[in-house]
Amino acid sequence: MTETLELAALTREHTRLALARTGLRLAEALQARFGSADAGGQDTELGAALRFARDYAQRSAAGAALAQLPPDHPLQRLTAMLEEAAHAQLFADLLLLAALPELHEGYATLCRLLHARGESCASVSLALHWLEHECGDDEAAVQATREAVEELLVHTPLATLGLLQLEGEGPWHSRNLLLGPGVWAALQARAPQLPRSELLPGFASVPGLDSWLAQSEVQHALRALREGEPCAIVLLGGSAAMRATRARLLLGQLPRAAVRVRLPPDGSEAAKRSLALEACCAAFALQACPWLDLDEESPDQGGLRWSLPAQLPWPGPLLLGATQESSLPELNLPLLCLRIEALPASARRSMWRSLLPQLGEQAGLLAARYPIEPDEARGLLGDLALRQRTAEREDARLDFDDIGDCLRARSSWRARPGVRRILPRAQWRDLLLPQRAAQQLSEAVLRVQQQLTVLDDWGFEQGCQNRRGLRMLFFGPPGTGKTLAAEAMARSLGVDLLAVDLSSLVSKWLGETEKNLAAVFDLAERSRALLLFDEADALFGRRSEGGDAHDRYANLETAFLLQRLERYEGVAILATNLRASLDQAFMRRFEFIVEFPEPDQATREQLWRLHLPAEAPLHSDTDLAELADWYALSGAQIRNAALAAAFLAAAQRGGERPAIRQTHFLSAIEREYEKAGKAFPGLPPRTRPDASPTTHLRQ
């Protein structure tokens, strides 16, 4: 650390000496041009400014020439790409002139006094006056200098790169001469304050990405970066965070930093090009790697293509980040493409074992339950550490609930029409299902938890695609527990439930249905949620054999959903009331098909008891077995009726202590039949004919 600070201080001192020497040369040229009577006198402001330049050079002992700068000085690097030595010296002179006002306000005053518009910066006109003076009376040299300055500032690759920038309107020689982004910070060996870019250091290592780093294509990219090979390394696919982690890991092997700019989803081509060149300019000045990343939310998937000039003046490798759908820029550079995909399960297990060694034995289960990326893991560690520090007990240990809560807090969630995010509270004991259905649900949970063992350790994924994840079909009448089962399953897996009404995603407009479905799957992948598609027959009805264009397009929508289901690595459940309404060709796509039948009499009685808490005051005339035998209600209807009966009992006035009577249940049941549009079967045989629910309520 001390050595780094000393090198930075030495760089700044070299820069200051070079600038002081430039200031002295400028003062001598101006003294000769204006004469001692006007410029050198002590009573004029210009004379005082010139005297400051001479005194500053003398105080700095600025006797060193530019050639005496160390080879690794930023100024030497900035001029290294110019092959002609004369042009390199000229470019250094211009760059130092533009930097003078940044060094000291005395130089800014001198520039202001000599500026046609009174601005405190150098101008091209000032540079020409200074350099022409040093040519003496040689008219040919003067003309050659003017042509060389114009070539450097207007026509060469350096002009496109923007290390030196011309600002203002009018002819080139009347404009301001300014430093490009990051150049002054580079000359001062300081981190830049870039208004639209960010300087990011590399990562020496990232848990879980060792196997990715060892891939042959990645090793090719590393060699290109080390050797400074001019090329474009494209990180293609994945999210912006996934690309960022891998890019920083690449650069951390050198080690080297990156100047990243996120190209916005909107804005003109000129604005995007300006952003890209700013990043390249700053990266060149700072010995970093430019990194241009396409915003993943961009509706303009050609954003990278038109953001860069084809003849980009870049002497080394640059990084490009793009989505799978992006069209790549037509650069005059070789392309090296690195496809970015989610971590494989074995790498996730390694990552969890490295992050939480105290839960190392459960790393496989963590990898199956929480398929997060390394960028999320870094934030998660800080969240978990804070939880432990603020726990009520000092010996509090981490568990899966802590991890789930922290990940839920960090998950990105954007509400969409037709999508509900449910924090699962249901448990398996809340469900009363036939033994076969309960067994299938239990097997499904175990399948998710054991994916890593079977698919990776035992090699069952070799040669096959889309074996990860789980696709299930729930079918049965309304109210039989399909959503409740999905919620209990999500709770047992430690994830949220995304309940999606498929009928609300179907659109009559071309391409809108696929767009809506893609957004839902993207949301589920970011939030690691269990997906429940309700009203599955809205898209999974029997396919048309051809018909009109509407039928053919509906088939395309169905095919799109099937494709995304197969690619989804989480749990996806499709729910429908009628299995017969689905095309049988779809059935082979599901690992589990679970039937939720209407409850029989014994199950209905159990449901009544399940939905009546132990604290609920039941009257002695209550006969739950009779209600279960006489009224064929679904589980959801029984739950609603039990709650409604309790409210009826609580609202009853009288001297007696409120209690839930049989008549309260009968009134609530009659309402459930009305809501379902069915005829009320009447009162149970044991109930007196005159003791109708409505009669009781009137009394």
Structural commentary:
With 699 residues, the protein is an alpha/beta fold. It folds into 5 domains: 2-187, no CATH class; 198-339, Rossmann fold (3-Layer(aba) Sandwich), CATH 3.40.50; 345-410; 428-595, P-loop containing nucleotide triphosphate hydrolases (Rossmann fold), CATH 3.40.50; 601-698, Helicase, Ruva Protein, domain 3 (Orthogonal Bundle). The strands form 3 sheets. A 6-stranded mixed sheet has the order 3-5-6-7-4-8. Helix 27 (635-651) packs across helix 28 (662-676). 37% of the residues are buried. This is ATPase family associated with various cellular activities (AAA).
Describe how the helices and strands are arranged.
Elements lengths: L1 H39 L4 H15 L14 H6 L5 H19 L1 H10 L9 H11 L4 H17 L1 H5 L2 E4 L8 E4 L3 H5 L10 E3 L9 H4 L2 H12 L3 E6 L3 H13 L5 E6 L5 H18 L2 E6 L22 E6 L12 E5 L5 H11 L7 H7 L4 H16 L10 H11 L8 E4 L12 H15 L1 H7 L12 E6 L6 H12 L3 E5 H4 L6 H16 L2 E5 L2 H4 L8 H19 L3 E6 L15 E4 L5 H10 L13 H7 L4 H17 L10 H15 L16 H6 L1
Parallel strand pairs: 4-7, 4-8, 5-6, 6-7, 10-13, 10-14, 11-12, 12-13
Antiparallel strand pairs: 1-2, 3-5, 9-11
